[in-house]
Design a protein that fits this description.
By secondary structure, this protein is an alpha+beta fold. The chain has two domains: 11-156 and 171-200, no CATH class; 268-296 and 312-445, no CATH class. Helix content is 45%, strand content 10%. The chain is built from 16 helices and ten strands. The protein has helices spanning 11-23, 34-48, 51-60, 75-87, 143-151, 171-191, 205-218, 251-261, 266-275, 304-310, 331-341, 346-365, 372-379, 383-399, 409-416, 424-445, and strands spanning 157-159, 162-168, 198-199, 230-238, 241-249, 277-281, 284-287, 302-303, 320-321, 326-327. A five-stranded mixed β-sheet has the order 3-1-2-4-5, sandwiched between helices. A three-stranded antiparallel β-sheet has the order 7-6-8. Helix 4 packs antiparallel against helix 5 (143-151). The protein is elongated. Bound molecules: zinc ion. Zinc ion binds next to helix 5.
Length: 462
């Protein structure tokens, strides 16, 4: 006989499948049997009918059997009655069918009302029969997929008044997320204290997404060869109206975060992240002062680095302090970012680093009362300006009798400024980062830094 479950690509169904797998301690969807389903449902019904859980059903299954006023006190029984009808329809996956999730079984009807599923049973579908075309009443799901959807709250992540549904192309990520969420559920059962869907109080969905990635990469799994793209749906499904937003974490960013998590750069990374929480005031960003705050205070705030990563914007400017002339991390972290996120080729990364190292030598040779060339590199605000400063540095190196040229023509055209005037700012950022990393102590000794100013660029207009 063929099996009941396989991932479908439908986020709610897949969440329910991963929840059931973890609940029944199975490793693959295909291992779940009808006996597993029949055993798990009454246990899960007991959990769901606890007061803390019923509340979360308002957010996910508005007007569903759990929250109908007439079912008060009989939630467990009514849910089991509803789901019992679906259990009767359990069928192994076939070759084809009209279920909108699996496409391999035919949809079932809610018997009493002779209709398909509404928003009270399947979040984010329509709450009204009028929405559907004349031939169809309600959404078409098979019994198995409809049961899976009912189980999805086990692995939802509560985010303030909304819910987050985690979906990934990686089966391993789906299972490990289910493990995190259900671990929390079991803790509630053991303590006999029911708070509903798993929550760590990340009200800002982007922060939640990065927290989810962090939890996965903290798991001692080997993710190196597993492309993990994560999408979260941030939603409510209240009776008065549904809301839905989604956020994508591409596989290369997960890979980057995972590499950091398991490297010596993790501490620097999280310190840089903590500096970049902000709130918007008119046109300005007001950075939150990190020293006085705990992690709790950031969970609902925006973070410029997280936003930059998700929108594929350049973030190196956050890795150093301009006035302090200080890098907040080591080159290794920058290199990870360039390689994993920007997918910059190794030779280009190496060339920029080498050129910056050579420039550092020139700057240190300067005996005057200020680091003239460094100031020019910092102030350069056009491509021409920046190139001109490099030209002056080349001349100085020749004057210092250095044998090797600062860079070759190939380096210049292909590795330092491959996009010419378009991308030169990136090269400037990288060179400054590296110069500050090497020269900070020397600059400090010489009195070339503003030490006491704690990043007084409080606001920034982008
Ligand atoms: Zn189905």
């Amino acid at each position: 006989m063929s099996h009941l479950f396989e991932y479908t690509g439908n986020a709610f169904v897949d969440a329910g499948i991963s929840a059931l797998m973890e609940w029944c301690e199975k490793k693959h969807p295909q291992e779940l049997t009808e006996a597993d389903v029949r055993k798990a449902l009454p246990e899960i019904a007991t959990l769901f009918s606890q007061e803390g859980w019923v509340k979360t059903f308002y957010t996910t299954f508005s007007n569903g059997v759990m929250v109908q006023p007439s079912n008060k006190g009989k939630e467990r029984e009514k849910w089991l009655e509803f789901i019992g009808e679906l259990v009767k329809e359990l069928q192994p996956l076939g070759d084809q069918g009209a279920c909108v999730a699996c496409g391999r079984r035919n949809p079932v009807r809610i018997k009493k009302e002779k209709r398909g599923f509404l928003r009270s049973e399947v979040p984010m579908t329509s709450g009204s029969l009028n929405y559907y075309s004349y031939a169809s009443t309600g959404a078409d799901y098979c019994g198995v997929c409809a049961i899976a959807i009912q189980l999805s709250p086990l692995v939802l992540y509560r985010s303030g008044g909304k819910m987050i549904l985690v979906h990934s192309s990686s089966e391993k990520a789906m299972l490990l997320w289910a493990r995190s969420a259900i671990k929390n559920v079991h803790a509630q059962i053991n303590l006999n204290r029911y708070s509903g869907c798993f929550s760590e109080n990340f009200k800002n969905p982007q922060n939640a997404l990065f927290q989810i990635a962090k939890k996965l990469s903290q798991d001692k799994e080997d993710w190196a060869n597993e492309p993990v793209a994560i999408r979260i749906y941030h939603f409510t499904n209240y009776g008065q109206g549904a809301e839905l937003g989604y956020y994508d974490l591409p596989a290369r960013i997960f890979h980057f975060l995972n590499e950091i998590q398991n490297s010596e750069e993790a501490e620097d990374w999280y310190r840089i992240i903590r500096k970049r929480y902000y709130f918007q005031k008119g046109q300005d960003r007001i950075w939150l002062k990190t020293a006085e705050k705990q992690e709790e205070d950031y969970k609902d705030k925006k973070n410029a680095i997280y936003e930059g990563l998700l929108e594929n914007r350049w973030i190196i400017k956050y890795f150093y302090g301009f006035q302090q002339r200080k890098s907040y991390a080591r080159w290794a972290l920058v290199q990870l970012y360039l390689k994993e996120v920007k997918q910059m080729d190794k030779q280009r990364i190496e060339t920029i680093k080498r050129v910056a190292d050579e420039i550092a030598l020139v700057i240190q040779k300067d005996e005057s009362d200020k680091p003239k060339r460094l100031g020019q590199l910092e102030r350069a605000n056009t491509y021409g300006n920046f190139r001109n400063t490099l030209r002056l540095i080349i001349k100085e190196r020749i004057g210092n009798n250095v044998e090797n040229p600062l860079f070759s023509l190939d380096d210049f055209a292909e590795r330092l400024f491959p996009d010419g005037a378009l991308g030169w700012r990136e090269t400037q950022d990288l060179i400054l980062f590296r110069l500050y990393e090497i020269l900070h102590s020397w600059l400090q000794e010489k009195g070339f830094v503003i030490d006491e100013v704690e990043e007084n660029r409080n606001s920034e207009v982008e």
